[in-house]
Amino acid sequence: MTSAGAHIIDGKAFAAGLRERIKVAVPAFVTQAGRAPGLAVVLVGEDPASQVYVASKHKATLAAGMESFEHRLPADTLQEDLIALVQQLNADETVDGILVQLPLPKHLDEKAVVMAIDPNKDVDGLHVINAGRLANGEEALTPCTPLGSLMLLKDTLGDLSGLDAVVVGRSILVGKPMAQLLLGENCTVTMAHSRTRNLPDVVRRADIVVAAVGRAEMVKGDWLKDGAVVIDVGINRLDPEPGKDRGRLVGDVATAEALDHVRAITPVPGGVGPMTIAVLLRNTLVAASARAGLAKPGGF
Ligand SMILES: NC(=O)C1=CN([C@@H]2O[C@H](COP(=O)(O)OP(=O)(O)OC[C@H]3O[C@@H](n4cnc5c(N)ncnc54)[C@H](OP(=O)(O)O)[C@@H]3O)[C@@H](O)[C@H]2O)C=CC1
Ligand SMILES: Nc1nc(=O)c2c([nH]1)NC[C@@H]1CN(c3ccc(C(=O)N[C@@H](CCC(=O)O)C(=O)O)cc3)C=[N+]21
């Protein structure tokens, strides 16, 4: 609790617990399937932030007892060569999950690359088959960041039924699947975006606010209803202050102001980010179990 009484949601600790439960479940898969679950991560180009995420995914995958296959391709990789790699990973029996780190360099067609991934290995949940299943309320591989965010919300609030939720941002990776998940929990969901009128007033109605915009500290404290629960998905690196830091990470919410209003909020870093990686491992184990004809692993 802070002095104002707001609870800081410890995504890092929750993610560590989830990773521990996955690590315990992996040996049962290995015994039954005769191999470890495998995750392939494809990184095109040298974006420094992406390099950091890919390295931490690799470490977490190995720590969970899974196989990690990293494919680093040069920034000028041809579309056909990237698609050929995806097809090779689709055909590889030791690969259960395929993640192509986004965004891709401009000359590549992201949609075509994602559509080339076998939907049963699409641990990012980006293929239209998985997006469609999620929208229809069917079993689906679900995007990691929204699913991790939902886990934190349920841990904080319990039943979400009937609550007013506002999701700011409508990307295929975060905002849209987040809204679908909240709808599935019987929230009344509003999706806001760059054309939304009177965004502060829209956000003020919400019991649950999910900010996934990519604009540093855009959501102000006085946009938040007293007692709201806030999930801050944004990861924005501020310009470095010479001699002081290498550029602080901040979210899409002005956290210090928000603390005077909210019941609970995720910090940046240490909130949603660690959940994304833990859920990626979860999705890999779920995909591996389905592919091996085994029961869906329980407990997460
Ligand atoms: N913590 C984690 O694990 C992850 C964090 N992220 C972070 O989350 C943020 C969002 O990511 P992502 O969804 O991929 O981003 P995108 O850039 O794909 O989408 C941003 C969304 O925000 C909307 N938007 C932009 N400006 C405004 C504005 N002024 N008012 C209201 N809405 C606005 C856009 O609207 P429109 O559609 O109209 O253009 C769009 O829907 C980024 O900071 C990203 O780094 C992303 C993935 C994982
Ligand atoms: N196909 C695809 N799937 C993704 O899920 C995907 C992607 N592309 N492209 C980029 C975004 C971003 N993303 C993050 C993952 C972990 C942290 C994370 O662990 N963050 C730490 C801090 C990390 C740091 O210090 O830089 C934290 O918030 O505590 C952040 C962001 C996944 N993304």
UniProtKB/TrEMBL annotation:
Gene3D superfamilies: Leucine Dehydrogenase, chain A, domain 1, NAD(P)-binding Rossmann-like Domain. NADP(+) binds at G169, R170, S171, I235. One of its GO terms (cellular component) is cytosol. It comes from the Bacteria. Its EC number is 1.5.1.5, 3.5.4.9. Keywords: Amino-acid biosynthesis, Histidine biosynthesis, Hydrolase, Methionine biosynthesis, Multifunctional enzyme, NADP, One-carbon metabolism, Oxidoreductase, Purine biosynthesis. Pathway: One-carbon metabolism; tetrahydrofolate interconversion. It catalyses: (6R)-5,10-methenyltetrahydrofolate + H2O = (6R)-10-formyltetrahydrofolate + H(+); (6R)-5,10-methylene-5,6,7,8-tetrahydrofolate + NADP(+) = (6R)-5,10-methenyltetrahydrofolate + NADPH. GO terms for molecular function: methenyltetrahydrofolate cyclohydrolase activity; methylenetetrahydrofolate dehydrogenase (NADP+) activity. One of its GO terms (biological process) is methionine biosynthetic process. Residues 143-290 form the Tetrahydrofolate dehydrogenase/cyclohydrolase NAD(P)-binding domain. Residues 9-124 form the Tetrahydrofolate dehydrogenase/cyclohydrolase catalytic domain. Pfam families: THF_DHG_CYH (PF00763), THF_DHG_CYH_C (PF02882). Belongs to the tetrahydrofolate dehydrogenase/cyclohydrolase family. HAMAP family: THF_DHG_CYH. Catalyzes the oxidation of 5,10-methylenetetrahydrofolate to 5,10-methenyltetrahydrofolate and then the hydrolysis of 5,10-methenyltetrahydrofolate to 10-formyltetrahydrofolate. PANTHER family: C-1-TETRAHYDROFOLATE SYNTHASE, CYTOPLASMIC, C-1-TETRAHYDROFOLATE SYNTHASE, CYTOPLASMIC-RELATED. Homodimer. This is Bifunctional protein FolD. It comes from Parasphingorhabdus halotolerans.
